[in-house]
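Data card: per-record layout.
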Amino acid sequence: MNTSSLVGHVLQLFEHIDGQNQPADRLAGDFFRQKKYLGSHDRRFISDAVYGMIRHRRLIKTLVKQFVADNPGTTELEGPHIRHLPMYVVYLLTIENKSNLSPAFWKIYFPKIDLEQFTGWITNHKNLDFLASEPIAQLGVKYSFPDWMVSEWQEQIGGETENLLQALNSNPGVSLRVNLLKTTREDCQSRLLKEGIETELSNISPAGLISRKRFHNLSSSSFLDGWYEIQDEGSQLVSRIADPHPGEIVIDACAGAGGKSLHMAQLMKNDGEIIAIDVDKYRLTELEKRAKRAGVSIIKTRLNKDLRAEEFYHKADLVLVDAPCSGAGTIRRSPWMKWGITEPLVEQYAEKQKNILSFNSQFVKPGGKLVYATCSLFRKENDEIVNHFLNSSTDFQLVHPGEDFAKLGLSLNNSTITMYPHCSNTDGFFVAVMKRV
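The structure for this 437-residue chain is written out next.
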């Protein structure tokens, strides 16, 4: 397909995603299913451009807006439907460092506006000099994050904030967790290579492999045989920090589709009992399918509404509360989340997290562990929740997770762990280990 047609598809998909409050990956999947004539290279070109524009939306939109403000008579650049073309041109210039748009294609939409004048202005001002007096806004625009997020992280990590924003804007590889109950990491890697999937060993997880290219796991025979699962290295670390042992009783209080339950079963050598609890029956059904594929027999699923608290009172050696959260630590995989996460939403999650942690703490037996985790990077969902819990539950105390984890690039603060993507090259996670004493 020629470049002009590909660009047309980019603009069509971006407009479709930009106008809806739904996950971009789902909308893109629907789009490509409707356009079966697009080859794999065409789909890659379109999706890379669209996801790039989503990641950098505030930057490209701000530059177009400022150009219009500085050049009266160009307001049509912000007109409905056609406004996405100048945004695409800005994306090419500022992120891709390209300027290969056909002037003839530009003239179809903007016959009265000179393309060279537009691209020249963008090139001269892409350093955002017009925001020099507003450092938070300048940083927020540069990396396309809301100002309140930038301020929050400035307070938490100061001069590291820009590195964090840059990491959250990166395009991560695909992380795999090899099922060591069925195979070894090296044998799985060799089998994947025969399937055309090239991987490298993870430096963080003993069961981890990294693929730098995306692939369709349902087309992989080794996946269908239960040799691996798709799971971020940071998520794998949460289970390692929780440190379940063979023969123990473990409760995964917010199990979802069970990624961590499956990993803990592996760490327990499929010996013991894991009670996986969730509010969503569909997710638990998915977990049961995944467990069968993985050869895991120690996981029992329970729907939250059917739970009787007295059944598990002081019973568990380990309770993992991987709490529902804003998900800010996963923005690099889901860049559209930036604008769906708001300060009021974080506050709402924080209230839920306090209740969830308090309720599930009753299941920990004396001497047992309570592990609180989120994929958030906001203090309100992390340290503040743990501090609130410890202030009201005097029979629990923080446990230092060990210096081995500090060597992996994790941030240790008062015995809690925060995985910042720019330090650990994982998704962002928070983990606190507490013991009932």
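Known properties of this structure: The chain has three domains: 3-168, 174-230, 233-436. The first strand starts at residue 174 and ends at 178.

See the next section for split statistics.
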